[in-house]
# Entry
Amino acid sequence: MTIQSPHSKDLSQTNHWLLEGMKRYRRDLGAHIFIYAVAIFIILASLSLTIFLITKGVQLFTHDGVSLFTMIFGSVWDLHDGKYGALPLIAGSFAVTVLAALFATPLSIGTALFMGEIANKRGRKWMQPVIEMLVGIPSVVYGFIGLTVIVPFIREHIGGIGFGLLASLIVVGVMIAPTIISITVDGLLGVDQSLREGSYALGATRWQMISRVVIPAASPAILSAILLGMARAFGEALAVQMVIGNTAVFPKSLVYPAATLTTTITSSLGETVEGSTANHSLWALGLILLAMSYVFILVIRWIGRKRNA
Amino acid sequence: MLTLEKPKASVTPIKKINPVFQVKDLNIYYGDTLAVKDVSVQFPERAITALIGPSGCGKSTFLRTFNRMNDLIPEARATGEVIYQEWNILDPRLDVVALRKEIGMLFQKPNPFPKSIYENVVHGLKCAGVKKKAVLDEAVEISLKQADLWDETRDRLTKSALSLSGGQQQRLCLARALALKPKVLLLDEPTSALDPISTAKIEELLLELMKEMTIIIVTHNMQQAARIADYTAFFFQGRLEEYGATAALFEAPKVERTKQYLSGQFG
# Structure
C-alpha cells in the first residue's frame, strides 16, 4: 500500500522506524496460527469422537434391528443370550453416582469449609498438597484397596458377599471427594470479604455467618463441584469394576453384586467379536455414557451462567 | 515538619452531654506498626460525630474498635480503654456478638448479601434467634421505611438485593442495621461509592436517625462533615489532633495541622 501525498514521504521506500510494527506483526502471526491450529485440533478431536461413537453406537439399532426402546427399558442384559436390555446397567451407573455423591458431599464440603473458612493460610497450605495427592492416585490403586480392604470388611461385618454398591460408593466417593473439595474451596475463597464483615457487623456468630451468608453465596460453585464429581463417578470404570461384582442385575441390595455401563463395557469388550451384535451393543452403551456426560456438562454450564447473571 | 515531642492535641470537652464512648489512652497496633496513637476522647449521645483526616490516618481503624471489627484482623492488637455503658469494649471476655447487635455498621462499599431484599433485612434478627414471621415482617417494614426504601421495594421484597442500584443497596444495608434497633451507628465512608443524589439521601436519613441514636461517621469529604456533623475529630498519622464542635473546628481550627488540612494544603 502506498499513500501518495505531496506532504509526506513514501514510507515503503525507506527502512523507517514506523515500519518496525510490520515486522512485529509478522512474528506474531506465527504464534497466532499455532494457537488457532491447536484450538481447531481440539474441537475437531471432540467432534470426530462424538461422530465416531454415534456411527458405531447406532449400528445396534440400524444394522441389528434392536429397538432403542428395548435397549433403554429392557431389564435383561445377557450378551450370550442376545438380550440387550441396558436398564439394570443404567440404574447401576446412576446408583453408584448418586450414592457416591451423597457419601462424598458432606465429607467434602466439611473439609472445604475447614480449608476455606476455619484454617489459617498455613493450614490451607498444608491441606492443599494432601488433596492434590488424592487426585493423583491412579484409580486402579483405589480399586485395589477397595478389593483387598473394603470388600472383605463389608463381607465380614455387614453382610452379603462384599462386592456391590456399598463398596463402590465408598471407593468412588473417596475418589471424587478431592474434586468437590478443591472447587468448593475456590468458590468459598471467591466470596467477597465484605459480605463476611457485613454479617459479623450484624451480630452473627462465625457459624451463622458461614451458614447464612458464605454457603448461599458460594452455592453455585458448590453445586458445580458436586456435579463435576458426579460426572467423574458416572464415568469411572476400573475402580468400580474391581469392587462391584459385575453382575448385570438390578441393584436390589447394597452388598450384592451389580454392574454399571462402564464396568460392562470394560469387562465384556474382550469377549465380543468386532462387527457382532454384542460388540455393537457395547458401543451403544458408550453412546449412552457420552450423552450423559454431555448432559452433565450442559447442567454445569447452565449453573455457571446463572451464577454470572 | 517532624518534631520529637508529642504535639499537643486540642480536645474541647463537651459539656452537659452523656458520653456514649469514653476512649482512654487507646493504642492500636498492626503487628509492630502503631496505627492509632494515644487517643483519649469522649463521644456524645444522640449526635453525629465525624472523623476526618487524610488516608491512612487511622480513622477507620479507630472506628472499627467500637464494634470490635478489628478482631477479624489477626495481627491487630489494642491497648487502653473504650468504655461503653460502663464496660470496656476491649475486654476479650466481652460478648462481641451482643455488642454488634447494639452497635451497627455501614461500610464503604454497599455489601448486600446475594439474597432477597427481605432476607437481607432480617439477617441480624434471625441470627439473634427471632423466628416469628409477624415480628420479622414488621421489622422489615419499619426498617425499610426508616431507610426510605419501603416505597421502592415493598412490591419486590423477594427479589435479589443485587437488583437494586448502588444507592438503594446502601440504604438496604442501613435498613439491615436498623432492624436490630442499634443504639450506635458506625459509618465507614458510607457515601464514597455513591452519586451525589444518593449521598444527599443518606445524609438526610442520618440527620433524622440522629434523634434516636448516636452516629459516628468516617468521611473523606470535608463538606459532608460540615453539613451533617455536630462534632468533628481530625486525625493525622494515628493521632487525634483536634476535636470539637464542627462549626468551631471548621471556622477557627486551633491546631496548625488542622488548619492546613482544611485549607487543602495536604490530603
Notes: Chain A has two domains: 17-57, 68-308. The two ends of chain A are 46 Å apart (CA to CA). Chain A touches chain B at residues 120, 192, 194-205, 208, 212-213, 216-217 (CB under 8 Å). Residues 68-308 of chain A form a domain with the MetI-like fold fold (CATH 1.10.3720.10).
